[in-house]
Structures are given as C-alpha cells and as structure tokens.
C-alpha cells in the first residue's frame, strides 16, 4: 500500500523552461515532506523540504508547494538546466518513518 | 569525507549463501535506517535503529537481521539468500525528528545480485 505516489515515471523538458514534478500522498499524519535527487549508481541526495505547517518553500531555482487539502506536493525547477537531469523522489515523514514515491525521471534537453 | 558510507558497493553471490553489508555514518545522528530499492524502483524501509535500539521493523523475512554495535554503525546480515533479494540496499541516517528539518542522508547503495 503506497502512501506516497508519483504517477509520472518520466518528464522531458527543454533547457530554460519550468519543470514541474508532482506527488500525492494519502496519510494526513505526515508532518514533513522532502524531495530527493538521484543520479545513477549514487544514493539519493536531499534537495528541498517543507513542513506540513507551510504551503511553500523556495531555495534558489527550486520551489516546493504543499496543498494539504488535496494531499498534493509539487516541485518546480525554474529555469531547468541539463544538470538537473536525474530521478526525483518525493518523500513524506511520519515521526521517524520516511515513505518514498517511485520516482520521476527528469530529462532536461539542451 | 563521506557522511554515510556502506560496503561493499557491489555484491554478487549464489542462492543460499549468507552475506553482510556494513554501514557507518560520521554525522553524529542518532537514527539509522536500511532501505531496499526493488526492481520497480520503490524505496522501502526495512529497519530503523535509534541509538542502537530497534525502533522500526517492517514486514521483512527473518533471514534479514540488522545489527547496531553503536549509534554510528548499522549492519545488515542476510541468511540463505534468495533470487528475490536482488536489489539495491541503501543505508541512511537522520537527526532527531524536528518539525522544521530532519532529512535523511543516504549512502551510495549496495547492489546485491543473487544468482
């Protein structure tokens, strides 16, 4: 039973445009949401997070939006760069447990 | 200086063998985890230890046994390996849960292939 879902396995975007990655969750007890980036043969690396008491968090080119009523999370990357090409995992935390989505592979074309 | 390191990075072995994967973190975190990334790419939690004490034990066959000799180390031992155990195993650590922060830090992963 997947509590965190990423329904788009892949996304292709032109360099300089906006990338929007989406994530849905089912558990209203999640208090903290995160995005991770993963390159092949490496571990996931933390990108950006948001507390459940906020609806937006921005860090440079990356912005995470949280819509609690819809149980929906999104990551915006503006402008997208070829180096952003990677697999992006959405995650949600309930106390000490982190639940992950299945990832979205982003390809940013030069 | 690697924050979360795990060895070996690659492991190829025969069905029925016993193998171990080691993990060490130098971040001073209290909590460590083992995650399994299966063929469908889901990252699923297996175990978590907080300061050497087991706090999360998901539905994992008892052929898998974690051991935490101290809070900086969490090892995973697997007995009687099966084909379905082939996966990438990630070790991770996190600081004490906090409302505003407290992300997971991952190791590079250990790819286990059972033949």
**Main structural class of chain B:** mainly beta
Shape category of chain A = globular
Overall strand count of chain B:
11
Intertermini distance of chain A = 38 Å
State the order of secondary-structure elements of chain B, H for helix, E for strand: EEEEEEEEEEE
Q: SS-based structural class of chain A?
A: mainly beta
User: How much of the sequence of chain A is in beta strands?
Assistant: over 45%
- Tally of individual helices of chain A: 0
Strand content of chain B: over 45%
**Average predicted confidence as pLDDT of chain B:** 90
Q: What is the general shape of chain B?
A: globular
**Radius of gyration computed on alpha carbons of chain B:** 14 Å
Q: Please give the share of residues in helix of chain A.
A: under 10%
Q: What low-confidence regions of chain B span 5 or more consecutive residues with pLDDT below 50?
A: none
Give the uncertain stretches of chain A in residue-range form.
none
Total beta strand runs of chain A: 11
* H and E string of chain A: EEEEEEEEEEE
Largest sheet of chain B: 7 strands, mixed
Portion of residues within helices of chain B: under 10%
């Amino acid at each position: 039973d997947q509590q965190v879902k990423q329904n788009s396995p892949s996304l292709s975007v032109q360099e300089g445009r906006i990338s929007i990655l989406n994530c849905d969750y089912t558990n209203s007890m999640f208090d903290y949401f995160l995005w991770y980036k993963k390159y092949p043969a490496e571990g996931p690396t933390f990108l950006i997070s948001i507390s459940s008491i906020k609806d937006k968090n921005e860090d440079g080119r990356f912005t995470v939006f949280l819509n609690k009523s819809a149980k929906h999370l999104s990551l915006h990357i503006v402008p997208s760069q070829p180096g952003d090409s990677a697999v992006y995992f959405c995650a949600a935390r309930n106390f000490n447990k982190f639940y992950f989505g299945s990832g979205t592979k982003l390809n940013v074309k030069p | 200086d690697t924050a979360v390191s795990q060895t070996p990075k690659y492991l190829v072995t025969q069905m029925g063998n016993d193998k171990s994967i080691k993990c060490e973190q130098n971040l001073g975190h209290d909590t460590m985890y083992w995650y399994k990334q299966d063929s469908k790419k889901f990252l699923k939690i297996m175990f978590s230890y907080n300061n050497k004490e087991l706090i999360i034990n998901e539905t994992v066959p008892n052929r898998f046994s974690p051991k935490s000799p101290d809070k900086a180390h969490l090892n995973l031992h697997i007995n009687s390996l099966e084909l379905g155990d082939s996966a990438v195993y990630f070790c991770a650590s996190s600081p004490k849960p906090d409302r505003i922060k407290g992300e997971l830090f991952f190791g590079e992963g250990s790819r286990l292939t059972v033949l």
